[in-house]
Design a protein that fits this description.
Blueprint (H helix, E strand, L loop, with lengths): L3 H17 L4 E4 L12 E4 L6 H11 L13 E2 L5 E2 L11 H8 L28 E4 L3 E3 L11 H13 L3 E5 L6 E3 L8 E3 L6 H9 L3 E4 L3 H8 L4 E4 L9 H4 L9 E4 L21 H13 L1
Parallel strand pairs: 1-2, 5-7, 5-10, 7-9, 10-11, 11-12
Antiparallel strand pairs: 3-4, 6-8
């Protein structure tokens, strides 16, 4: 559970465990800011070779002290026995349901972000303007999951239609430091494509956006946690990357519009070559933009 999406999945369960008050909770995470509003959390420094995780470890460590874990694991109970908030990446069952089976909650779970942070100077150009965050199609270092990506032309077309409708588009990626953009980079109005944003700034950017366009990955989950309208554009590897597995009833998905390949992909391999064509893709994009203009 080292990525941004993994930690978003873990957050509801960490809140529930901490609320139960069954002793100290030690949390090994590369994204402590996701848990700032939860009392009684002892943040433990993780071991990760992923560049974007290492960047936030350094950023958070500049003003905070990392703690050592009493035992190896993500969460430890009052008996100091490690308990792992985790799911099996190759398991086609719903991600939240997998974690639920290990950590049956006592209280109602909520899928959200922590309290807002002060507005970043990096967003001066966005003040008073309507904007949409767009995740370009990327290949991430260390993840053999390129099959899950949508066709880049769908993301590029969404960017063009949004700009013509008067929205500013903001591209977010970590190119050159763990990510590589697939195909031509869309003409975004504002670009944060080389990891310029800190993790708190990234959360803030999503939290106040008018909408989000993203393929599978943290962009989808961040949009749902921030309760922002989402155009979710899916690719292949359909056994693992599909709305029924990624989303869950504890999430408010009322503002999610899914664009799925016309022929569903049945595979779980990260390198399958199933067709990602989406029938009526352009009308779906226009529908999403009309909802935003609403």
């Amino acid at each position: 559970m080292v990525g941004i999406g993994d930690n978003l999945y873990a957050r509801p369960f960490v809140k529930d465990i901490a609320r139960q008050g069954r002793g100290r909770v030690s949390l090994m995470t590369g994204f402590p800011q996701l848990f700032d509003d939860i009392r009684g959390i002892r943040i433990v420094k993780p071991q990760s070779s992923l560049p974007y995780v290492q960047n936030n470890i350094r950023f958070w460590g500049e003003k905070n002290n990392w703690r050592g874990a009493p035992r190896v694991g993500d969460v430890d109970s009052e008996k100091m026995e490690p308990r792992f908030i985790s799911y099996v990446p190759e398991n086609p069952e719903n991600v939240i349901d997998q974690i639920w089976a290990k950590f049956p909650p006592k209280y109602q779970l909520t899928f959200d972000l922590p309290s807002p942070t002060p507005t970043s100077p990096a967003f001066r150009q966005l003040r008073g303007k309507r904007y949409v965050v767009i995740r370009p199609v990327v290949i991430r270092e260390g993840f053999g999951t390129s099959a899950r990506n949508p066709r880049p032309e769908y993301v590029a077309e969404a960017n063009r239609v949004l700009r013509r409708a008067g929205f500013l588009t903001v591209g977010v990626a970590n190119a050159g430091d763990g990510e590589a953009i697939v195909g031509d980079t869309p003409e975004f109005d504002l670009k944060f494509l080389n990891g310029e944003l800190s993790f708190p700034e990234l959360m803030e950017l999503f939290r106040v956006a008018d909408g989000v366009v993203s393929g599978p990955g943290f962009g989808m989950l961040m949009a749902v946690a921030a309760k922002r309208p989402l155009l979710a554009i899916w690719g292949a590897r359909g056994a693992l990357d599909n709305p029924n597995r990624i989303f869950h009833p504890i999430m408010d998905t009322s503002m999610v519009q899914n664009m799925l390949p016309t022929v569903p992909c049945p595979h779980s391999t990260g390198e399958c070559d199933c067709d990602k064509y989406i029938h009526r893709a352009l009308p779906s994009i226009y529908d999403f933009v009309e909802r935003l203009k609403g």
